[in-house]
Amino acid sequence: MLYNLLSPFADQFLAFNLFRYITFRTGGAIITALILSFLLGPMVIKWLRATQNGASNIREDVPEGHLAKAGTPTMGGFLILLAIVLSTILWADISNGYVWIVMMVTVGFGAVGFADDYLKLSKRDSKGLPGRIKLVLQVGIAVGATVWVLMLTREPLAASMSVPFFKNILIDLGWFFIPFAAFVMVGASNAVNLTDGLDGLAIVPVMIAAACFGFIAYLVGNSIYSEYLQLHYVAGTGELAVFCGAMVGASLGFLWFNAPPAMVFMGDTGSLSVGGALGAISVVTKHELVLAIIGGLFVLETVSVIVQVASFKLTGKRVFAMAPLHHHFEKKGWAESTIVIRFWIIASILALVGLATLKLR
Questions:
Q1: Taking CA 74 as the corner, what is the angle to CA 70 and CA 75, rounded to the nearest 5 degrees?
Q2: What are the pLDDT digits (tens) for 66-109?
Q3: Cα-based angle 79, 84, 87 (whole degrees, multiple of 5)
Q4: How far apart are CA 293 and CA 150, in angstroms?
Q5: What is the domain range of residue 30?
């Protein structure tokens, strides 16, 4: 909004020229989201604690040690959403369609998560919104966003998928791009949701991935840098760097309250929304496969659940002591802080590998 209001007067007021730079506005979005998180956090947590008094927020299928966390308010993702949306509207070019696509996915998935969290708390059980309904709602939002992406993106990129490490390979998926892109968004959303099981475990990898995709969006949306790095140029996507900056600031602010021992949990409100946002950004920037590398920790957690369920149904035996993967290590006796920090290290390494794909072509 500041860009739309002030940049037209840059010729008269030299200071307003700063708002023409995506890098400046990305920095502004980071700081704004961080400050909003710090200011609103205590009030949101107090409200959640009062609203959820006596409600169950611990799932039944978790290690026994988690029972000690009963009473910690959930739905803290509402704070993340507030910080992201307000900061993005303030600093991004609000005439950019890609910004609104990603915002639609973020808020839409967040609303699905909010409904799920609310039902869990209001009914005093851990089931929440039925899985099929949740999935249908997510798919509907993702399909709508994908169709919008196809309308905005120029050919031949619109319905195509790029392949990491290969500069000349661009696979035209045709109409199959719609289910493919929807799968990326819904898959990323639920992968983050599965990872969100320990204090601070999910939010730092989300922050790392958001920072990486902010950098990717900036490069892909810049014709000079994309040509130099031999990336597929997607006009207008550079503005998503501002959104990613807001995600980084909001994640950092939320970590202040979510660090062990957590004062608040993210809940489905947060995990579904930020995961969906990462998926949407990867679709818009044509880096869907790179998301699987940068967000490799989320992939590992998801695969562990799939393997566990498949193994038990086919053989009656479990591969892991408990799934997702972080619960397996809890059962093995690892301290929660050890698991969290080591998973953060893994996420950082995978992010570096993902960024390496930008040059290794």
A1: 170
A2: 656 667 888 999 999 999 999 999 999 999 999 999 999 999 99
A3: 120
A4: 24
A5: 2-356
